[in-house]
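Workshop exercise sheet. Pairs work together: one partner reads the sequence aloud, the other fills in the structure field after running the prediction. Swap roles for the next sheet.
Pair: D.N. / O.F.
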Amino acid sequence: MVEFPGALARRTVLAGGLLLPLLPGLAAAAPRSLAFAVFRNGTRIGEHRVNFTGDGATLTAATDAVMTVRLGPVPLFRYHHKALETRSDGVFASLETSTVTNGKAEHVVAERTGAGVRIDGPSGRVTLDADVNPLTHWNPQILAGPLFNPQTGRLMKVRTTRVSPTHWTIRGEAEIDDLYDGSGAWQSLKGKLTDGSMVEYRRI
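Structure field:
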């Protein structure tokens, strides 16, 4: 999740049921990677990469996102987010994230337990329902159910809509459109911030 401060402020995550299978392409092609250039109002501000390892039974996704917003040569906003997510037989198993936003560090650890999904984050510990997933975007199957913010560990107040087989929208505390190809691989993201500026991910 990216939190743009001041005039840019909005909680926008730039990061189906749990029993659905893994995306066929990811299971068959692991290890595999996705890379995106990140733009704000058409200006490139960073990159977001996801590397996959594992097989059809266990899949691990390692995310690394780095962004800097500048006014001329002066940096106004710096962001670095790292995440390690594991899924077992298509079901969310665990997530650990580390995020530094303008020098402020946040750490989240989430793990499936018999009681649900236990999350330790900046606001403390909480246990969410078993059908919750982190909003990490690369797997469209998670968008049919409840989502938690991978940077804060909090349950998100959003509604998701499958516009077409390759297009999902997220509305509420975030305003995001995610696009996928026919195999379900993540292709792009567009998000609108409260100041009217646009954030876009373009596959590289």
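Discussion prompt: The CA atoms of residues 66 and 80 lie 5 Å apart. What would you look at next?
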